[in-house]
Amino acid sequence: MLVLATFLAACTPQAYIAIMPGVVNNPANRTLRREILAFGTGSLCKEVLKQSIPLKLRDEDPTLGRFFPKTCKIEPLENGDLYVQFAGFGYAWSNLTKRLSFSASAAIQYEQDFRLDGSTMYVYFKPAATTAKKFDLKMVEQSVMPASPVAPLFPGGDAKSFMNQIGEGMLAREIGRGFTVIRESDGSASFGVGLLPVGERPLAPFERRDDARLLYVNEAIEIHQEQRDYVGPLEVPEKGMALYLTMSVTGAPSIDLLVVPRALGDAWLDQYAASPQAGPAPGPAVLDETVTLDPTGKLTKRLVRVPKGSYYVVLDNTGSAGRSSPPQAALDDRAALVNLGIELGDAP
Predict the structure, then answer these.
(1) DSSP string, 38-86
(2) What gap in Å lies between CA 177 and CA 326, rounded to an integer?
(3) Which residues contact 252 (CB under 8 A, 6 or more apart)?
(4) Long-range contacts: 151-160, Cβ < 8 Å, 24+?
C-alpha cells in the first residue's frame, strides 16, 4: 500500500498544478483532481511489489515487523475509486509469541484524492469498503503461552490459536485507517498512517539534510534478541549510485548492519519466515559491520556504493549472522532500538 501510493504521487504532474492550488483544492473540482491522479494507475501493482510495509502497534511506536506484498491487482471503478487486491507474507514480534510469520490478503476499495499545500502534495487513500480479508499464521517461535494465571483466559489456550483468532481483526484495523503520501517539490515522498492534515508530517527519527537524495526509509525499529529486520527491498535504478545510511542504537550494546543483494536477501527472508531459528546468510554481504551503542548520541553514517539492482538492509541481533552476538543471559532480552535512515543518491 505504501509504495502503491508513493508511486501514484510521484506520477502526478505536480510541477504544473502547483501554480494553481486554489483551483485544484476547490471541492467542486474533485473530478479534475481524480483525472490527475489517474496518470499512475497503469503501473501501480508493479510499484507496490518493490518494497515492504512496516508494522507498528501505534503510530508513535517503533516498527515490530514487516509485510512483503507478493501479488497485486488493481481495478479503477466507475466512481473514480480504486479496487485493490493484494497478498503477501510477513513477520512480527510479540512478547507472547516472540517471532511469528503469516500470510495475508485483502481486497479494498479506496477513495483517492489529494490537496496542495504550496508545492507540497498530500495524496489521500481512504478505505471505502473491505470486501475480503484473510490472515493465516505460518510459524510461531514460542508456541506455548508463558506461565501466567491469565493464560487460560486467552481464546484457544495457546499462542498460535490466540493470534490466529485476533489476526484478522488486526489486519482489518490496520487497513481501515487509510494513509497519506506526502510528495515534496523535489520529488521525495513520505508516508503516514491515517489521514494527515495538510501541513503535518509523519513521525520520523531523523531530519533530512540533503534534499537531492531520494529518501527510502526513516524509521525507529525495535529488534529483540535473536531477531532481525529485513528493510527493503530497495531499488537502485542506475549505476554510479550509493545508499546513504544513518543509524543510532540504544537499548542493546550493538547491532549488526548488513547490506545484501535482493536474490540473497529473498532466500534469507524466506528461511527467517519459515523457521523459529534465525539462520545465517546464504551468501556474502556487500556490507557487514557492527554498530555499537554510543552514549554520547553520535550517529553512525555509512556510504555504500552498489551496482544497479535491488538490495536489503538487514539489522541483525542474533548470534547466527553478522560479526557480533547479543549477550546470552536467562530472561535477559535486551532489545535494540535502532533509528535508521536510508537515502539513495549519486556516489561521490
Answers:
(1) GGGGGGHHHHHTSS-EEE-SSTTSPB-EEEEEEEEEEEE-TTS-EEEEE
(2) 36
(3) 223, 225, 293, 317, 326, 334, 335, 336
(4) 159/96, 159/97, 160/97
24 to each of 114, 175, 186, 210, 256, how far by Cα in Å?
Answer: 9, 27, 20, 29, 47
d(CA 319, CA 230): 16
Q: Give the C-alpha separation, 65 to 228, whole Å.
A: 9
Judged by phi (left if over 0) then psi (alpha if -120 to 50, else beta), residue 106 lies in beta
Which DSSP string do the residues of 256-267 spell out, in sequence order?
Answer: EEEEEEHHHHHH
DSSP classification of residue 279: P
Task: Report d(CA 100, CA 272) in Å as an integer.
Answer: 10
Reading the chain (348 residues) residue by residue, the pLDDT tens digits are 444 444 444 444 444 344 344 444 555 555 655 555 554 455 567 777 888 888 887 778 899 899 898 998 988 888 878 888 989 999 988 887 889 899 999 888 888 777 888 878 787 878 888 877 788 888 888 866 555 554 555 555 555 666 666 555 556 666 667 777 777 776 666 666 677 788 876 656 666 665 678 888 889 999 999 999 999 999 999 999 999 999 999 999 999 999 999 999 999 999 999 999 999 999 999 999 999 998 888 899 999 999 999 999 999 999 999 999 988 766 678 899 999 999 999 999
Given a contact cutoff of 8 angstroms between Cβ atoms, the answer to whether 269 and 230 are in contact is yes
DSSP bridge pairs for 122: 115, 182
| DSSP-derived 3-state class of residue 309 | strand
Domains in the chain, please, with CATH? 2-193 (no CATH), 214-346 (2.60.120.680)
